[in-house]
Design goal:
By secondary structure, this protein is of the alpha+beta class. It has two domains: 154 residues, no CATH class; 169 residues, no CATH class. It has ten helices and twelve strands. The strands form four sheets. It has a six-stranded mixed sheet with strand order 3-11-8-9-10-7. A two-stranded antiparallel sheet has the order 1-2. Strands 4-12 form a two-stranded antiparallel sheet. It is elongated and about 80 Å long.
Amino acid sequence: MKRIRSRTPGNIAFILMLLISSLWTFWGVSEMFHEGWYRPFEWIFFLIPSLISVSLTVVSLLFPKIGGSLIVLSGMIFSVFIFSRMTQRGTPTVSDFLSWIPVTLLFILIGVLFVIEGFRIREPLEREVRWYKRYSKVIIAILIPLVIGITVGVVSGYRYFNRYDDGYRGERIVEGYEITLIWAGEGPGWHKSSTGNLSWNEVALYGKEPIGFERKRETYASYEDFKRYNMFRYLNYDGTKLTDKVYDFWRLPTIDELTRSMYKDNECVGCPWNGKEGIQNYKKPPDKETPLWAPDEPVIYYMSSTEADERKYYSISYRGMVIKRDKSEALGSLGFRAVRTGKKP
């Protein structure tokens, strides 16, 4: 009688890889529509981690030693990359470390389990075993992430194709929750593209000599600096030109004003800011729609003038999520929209 060893290492590795592939698929499709809300199908590269994970799983199921070795190598390379990036940005926190374990140290462990599985003695498969039983795990490894991706894509796509956009990109009055504000139209007062990205520091220190944005990204501005030098003080009345003269026609809204001005389906769903990060108490979740956002543009986060501490401030996403950001951070998806102070020209 042939000796048969337990296939526990391979089964554990398969389950863990299936879980990781499913999570990467969920993240990839969600992020494709989140970051690329204006044109999601140009952001298919977010699916690359999922495709790599599924491919490694299939190879490991068919050739455990080879696939396991590739997983170990991938985990080691990714671990070095991630943890070196963490240390460059300062001392990593426990939560930072734990959040990356599934695709770093755990990934290495999964590869080792597949390699162990490859060395174990198994009973040869019977010839009469049908192909779908022989390759059942391979089918599952492909099918489950595929179903997750399609499901998330359909839900996100429904929102994408049904968003409200009146097509107007000029200056406009927006009635929020217990506030009414005039928001800037096309021009330097409304940054909604992915070019010319600015940090909060650069915005805050624009008017400090020498006037402009150059070499100010890494200089942390205080709120007093912001009030004195911010770029919105230098916008003309129409918000179409940034000058070297103080006008005080425009300002950056507070985070409370932003949460109060959120819209969904051409209806205000805003609410007062609760003083914390995270989703606020909206009547229903807001979206990247007019009148506040430009649905066909890359920017999905707006800066606020509200300072969190010496190095951070509050921003908001089009879904209404309040987020703390480093004042030196500049992203293609991060912009701003000024509001008028009410001062007469």
